[in-house]
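Changelog-adjacent note: as of this version, every example in the card shows the full chain rather than a window. The one below runs 145 residues end to end.
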Amino acid sequence: MALKFIPTAEGYYNFENNKYIYNYTDHLGNIRLSYFNNGSSLEVLEENNYYPFGMKHEGYNVLVGNPAYKYGYNGKELQTESGMHDYGARFYMADIGRWGVIDAMSEKYRRWSPYTMQSIILSDLLTRMAMIHCMVKKHKWLSHE
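Full-length structure tokens:
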């Protein structure tokens, strides 16, 4: 099994075609257009349009991109087996606009929620633990869980 691509901030390098593919993204991180420089002009490889909750428009713009590069809606990877977008801790089902599983840390941090007016300032992506800070009076730290 050989390496097929290397992702970068602006796109990815495709080893199969020996080309650098540029991704044009919108303000939400959705990859709208993938293109490359063929020497004399730019050639569009793939165009993506999405419904508000993330399902991809089908039936037009049938350009074929790199099948190994599965990033698109919000810049997240599409799992082709399940049809869900991988957000790290949870999977998102764009066809119904819902999360497929509950948050893995929901029981651990019940009192810290956007609905209790508490703030989670930092998040450790490796351990998926929230680092919670509370500040009062002259910017002194009161707690760190």
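Structural remarks: The chain is about 0% helix and 35% strand.
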